[in-house]
């Protein structure tokens, strides 16, 4: 699977606005806005507690300390303790206020992303690596929840604390206040430069983490192949290379952060030092009281954390803006709008393909269409085998019927109704599919099979009938029978067993139209014959298109269509095609065109079965 990688998903412009990206979270934040606002007010109140402490100190130094009044000192100490306890308590209340609602925001965003992913067309999933989607649904959403809980609130709270703090500083000693304010301008210029560089690095790191997740996922899913071909070393090398790249990016981020942090810490320290020197001179000249200088410096020190935190709060906001961009990149991918047609008024006409053309959206430019005008009629109740050279487009053609891909030209009708006019639900009711590579889900056998029955569901009897058609007698021998867990986290089944379960899933809903993509390829000859016999019963009431590679599968069909060069080259019975089509003979004989005549006589023998 190819995917948008770090390069293709990087923002078009490095100057994308952090605020613009984050504002898009508003619809999710709206329901919890009151709690968030209250939590911000509580946090501002908590921060102000720390700003009152210097005022108590000023009162203590200029009053009880100067007057040598121990009672006053105890009172001042008690007040400071009380303010400290209040500050701690208020911060606790703030966390309690936001924890639950923000977990809800994260859950809502994840639910919407998941639902959107389910509705996106197959070609989207062909293009995107699963690790990229996984990292957006997990890591990026966690970053966004943290942003709402911490940087968003603290940018407001610390901003307000800095404003209130400076107001207090200016009322105490305006000259010293100006000295402290002096570094603000260079700091703002530096922060804006830092924001741009950090945004790019954050985006690169998050994309690289997604690529790494893809590699880990592929390695885990393909562990058998990796072991069988002794590829663990090359996989480990690829893993090391990608972790190294991510490590480099993270180090680059840390370097940017440490640079800005150093500046943010140093400039205010220098300003506080200068204020201390100027203030001491003023105290010596009796232009300032000692208590005022103590209070001024304590307030300035209390403002250190709000000022210093701005650097990493900006960094976290940037990462969150990147996470929001990555989240909305998926959410902004449009889903093809569904129609609400029900196919009412349909007349028995089977499956008709008229001038159907198709090319994959991500096919290289200037390549010919894969399907270049398919005309085919499968009569009601008829089973048509689809035969063609490997890679000629058989699977792609079958994917057009249940609209996994949309035809780029022509039309496909089911009982006279254009599939483009049918709603997705109705189409899934009408058409069932089984693929050559069967996918089972982490669920019981019963649930896996019943999944094919659509919204109406399937009872015990339906499931058992479908299992009987697909010759799934092995189910009775499973530890918990129908309730045995299979799929990735369940019992491992053989390829043939999986194929038969997938076939049972396709037939359980008694679909009007059945699409089978070489569904019997993993079965032994004996089991294949049994499945075919049972399937013939099912196919009697169903109009079916069956991709076939072997004469035994072709035997299921009433007629055979030969796909070549993007068109239906011939349609007829197995015997007709064997007689008239050299390519068909070639395909059915296992690929020995020079021995066509021998192949013909051998295959005609099989036709007589
Ligand atoms: N998602 C995709 N994007 C772009 N090209 C694709 C995609 N899937 C398949 N193709 C290309 O389309 C062509 C036809 O593939 P398809 O799977 O339909 O062939 P097939 O006839 O079913 O082959 P086989 O008999 O080997 O199963 C191939 O060249 C393949 O590379």
From TrEMBL:
Q: Which residues form the ABC transporter domain?
A: 351-590
What the entry lists under InterPro entries is as follows: AAA+_ATPase, ABC1_TM_dom, ABC1_TM_sf, ABC_transporter-like_ATP-bd, ABC_transporter-like_CS, P-loop_NTPase, Type_1_exporter
Q: Where are the transmembrane segments?
A: 34-53, 73-93, 146-168, 174-194, 260-282
Query: What Gene Ontology cellular-component terms does the record carry?
Result: plasma membrane
User: Any idea where the ABC transmembrane type-1 domain is?
Assistant: 37-319
For this UniProt record, give its keywords in alphabetical order, as a comma-separated list: ATP-binding, Cell membrane, Membrane, Nucleotide-binding, Transmembrane, Transmembrane helix, Transport
Question: Could you tell me which Gene3D superfamilies the record lists for this protein?
Answer: ABC transporter type 1, transmembrane domain (1.20.1560.10), P-loop containing nucleotide triphosphate hydrolases (3.40.50.300)
Which stretch is the leader sequence? Answer: none
**Which Gene Ontology molecular function entries are recorded, alphabetically?**
ABC-type oligopeptide transporter activity; ATP binding; ATP hydrolysis activity
Q: Which CDD domains match?
A: ABC_6TM_Rv0194_D1_like (cd18543)
Q: Where in the cell is it found?
A: Cell membrane
Q: How does it sit in the membrane?
A: Multi-pass membrane protein
Q: Which PANTHER family match?
A: ATP-BINDING CASSETTE SUB-FAMILY B MEMBER 10, MITOCHONDRIAL (PTHR43394:SF1), ATP-DEPENDENT PERMEASE MDL1, MITOCHONDRIAL (PTHR43394)
- Protein name per Swiss-Prot or TrEMBL: ATP-binding cassette, subfamily B
Question: What is the scientific name of the source organism?
Answer: Actinacidiphila yanglinensis
